[in-house]
Amino acid sequence: MLNEIWSSVADFYDPTIGMLRQWAWGLPIYFVVVAWVAFLARKEREPVTLRAVVRSVFPKDQYDHASARVDRWNGIILLAIGFPLSVFVAINAISVADNLAGFLATYFGARAPLMHTDWKMVAAQFAIYFLALDFSGYWVHRWCHEVPVLWPLHKPHHTAETLTPWTLFRQHPVEFFFLNTIPSFFAGVMLGLLLYATGTAVNPGTVTVIGIQVYVSFFVVDTMSHVHVHVSYGNWVNRIVLAPVMHNLHHSIELPHRDKNYGVILTVWDWMFGTLYLPKKNETWRWGLNEVEFGEKNPHKTLRGFYLEPFVSFWQGLLQIGARQDTVTPTHE
């Protein structure tokens, strides 16, 4: 199976196929569109010059900030493991899907194939993989906020005081790992159910390529969700697809904002589960954590503090849970 997977990965990155090149063009094109909209929406109405555009799109106070420097260095480290992780995610999904489909076939009997056209099966697998990752990504992100023991690992992402595309990579390595592996496991379960229901055998190469395509799709959209400009797609579209302004608001210092808009690519999950917040016209906010949580003593302004402080907070959280359990008086009948 591994030989087929690596062969498919090699074909995927082969310049003669061009699939990766199509996605590679997607990010700069999307960025240029967002940048142009940001420039047109700026308050200062200076003449349109290259210098004015660059200054508006790449403001020095955002990109040269201490917070942004931590983002860049951590981003370089995470990018080094990003591709291997994307392959691992795909292999994890394949393994789960294969074992689940085999288990169901053994105990409930094999099913006759329902789809005889390859492209229909590939499209169905892509849709299931995409929706499963996005749905589970919503819940894992929400748990990181609502489960006290998980918040210390996600908190570094919210100590960002500026937003740039590098802020996407402002993730603690431990969080980065489970934010990818848990959704991939769920995607594998959904793929296994699809394969069994349609009587289709697992094709490791196909699923690997689909997984990488979905992973790159998430990368493109999620990168542009971490920009300093309030780009909106309009309230109706914002209810379905994550616009930069929606995640921009999620990084707000205001608590009512932060516990909203958990979606990764689709905000329809926020709409369905009551966590959607549509920014009001001319509404403004600051990024980061409030003074009670960190204030000026933010330890994540250095890479060392960024990596070590979450472990300390995580351990303190576990001790507090243990202390609360010790104070509970047992009842006897």
From TrEMBL:
This protein's GO CC annotations: membrane
Localization terms from the record: Membrane
Domain Fatty acid hydroxylase residue range list: 126-275
Keyword Flavoprotein: no
GO biological process, one term: lipid biosynthetic process
InterPro entries assigned: Fatty_acid_hydroxylase, Sterol_Desaturase_Related
Transmembrane parts of this sequence: 23-41, 76-97, 122-140, 176-196, 202-221
Entry-linked Pfam families: FA_hydroxylase
Main subcellular location of this protein, as a coarse class: membrane
Record keywords: Membrane, Transmembrane, Transmembrane helix
GO molecular function per UniProt: iron ion binding; oxidoreductase activity
Protein name: Sterol desaturase family protein
Organism: Burkholderia cepacia (Pseudomonas cepacia)
